[in-house]
Amino acid sequence: xxxxxxxxxxxxxxxxxxxxxxxxxxxxxxxxxxxxxxxxxxxxxxxxxxxxxxxxxxxxxxxxxxxxxxxxxxxxxxxxxxxxxxxxxxxxxxxxxxxxxxxxxxxxxxxxxxxxxxxxxxxxxxxxxxxxxxxxxxxxxxxxxxxxxxxxxxxxxxxxxxxxxxxxxxxxxxxxxxxxxxxxxxxxxxxxxxxxxxxxxxxxxxxxxxxxxxxxxxxxxxxxxxxxxxxxxxxxxxxxxxxxxxxxxxxxxxxxxxxxxxxxxxxxxxxxxxxxxxxxxxxxxxxxxxxxxxxxxxxxxxxxxxxxxxxxxxxxxxxxxxxxxxxxxxxxxxxxxxxxxxxxxxxxxxxxxxxxxxxxxxxxxxxxxxxxxxxxxxxxxxxxxxxxxxxxxxxxxxxxxxxxxxxxxxxxxxxxxxxxxxxxxxxxxxxxxxxxxxxxxxxxxxxxxxxxxxxxxxxxxxxxxxxxxxxxxxxxxxxxxxxxxxx
Length: 487
Known about the structure:
It contains 14 helices and nine strands. It is of the alpha+beta class. Strands 1, 2, 3, 4, 5, 6, 7, 8 and 9 form a nine-stranded antiparallel beta sheet that branches. Helix 3 runs antiparallel to helix 5 and helix 7 packs antiparallel against helix 9.
């Protein structure tokens, strides 16, 4: 038997002359050659991107000025409120009806965008009020969301409180401190939720340790000339964010997903095909499939908790949201350390260190500077945080985070009176109740009752005849009834 073998030799030649010539150039000429051939494309792309953002911002501003009119509603819940944050969670669920989609032409030719809502807590010299700023066309939506959970609440339209203080700094009389609070980790991880503030001890109405108590106490401690504003901007969104949470779960499990392009996938397919042909000779080892990741039995308790928390968060309706805080006060009474430290302490209540927490944005939005040009940069930050708050701008500053309705209700809800004793929270004067069933009505009386605005009543002649009849009726009686009230 004769066995013949064939060997194929392929010769590949790579010309590196141009690369060697480029590397031999001086540094300044090398930079110039790189800019002429490639660098200008990068600069042009960045320039065009910036111009497109400026154009879109201007277009959206024109659309908003033409189509949107905003109002502010004050929400007063009745005294003795015993509703848990679950009621506010249902309010945010109903707010999901404000979500709308826009196509390419509506976005880039009309300037249409998703409308946001601002849920606010304001303390003016210790007087605390819960407010919602919204487009007037959504007033019925907001009022329905409130009345459906708090039937005895009172809603009234009020003026914008931001106009009572200067909006440009530096100012001779007022000073300002402000910051945005952001999620410390990937938004897929939830913060500490209101259910975790329950403590099974004592009377049932006091088992929920309302985290709002510390904020209400801080608001009530403000003196004359101090104002504290907290703003939760809520932007309705779709369901695409759920896919991002699934990626985070796969990351914890150690699953590997191929993100290569079409060319890379084709090359990978060719490699797999060649391995399938030549692997019969035993020259190529079979690849180990490690895309399955870890099983639930292999996870640590921390990893299990994280996966469960992420999946619980993605099971509920989500919104984009931004937390912004401003403290304005007269310079003589301003106490930045009390308010700033109090707000940071309030936000740290929602920290779950193995999941997520809220932290102040020290680098960009907080009115704090260090090192170079401190004074000018500080003034710029003060004016920026004030302008963004007044405009209720959800796109300025840091990018909005992602919160579900449970997290939003944890951060913004009406305090439970059994746990929160702050005396200066505005509340409805009392509960409203239906009339008792035993109350007599008009139909129970004998005789016809004249209707209001009846033609006979409005006729002067008829009215005079009616008075004469009443006089005759009264004179026919011997005396006035014993139960007639006297002054």
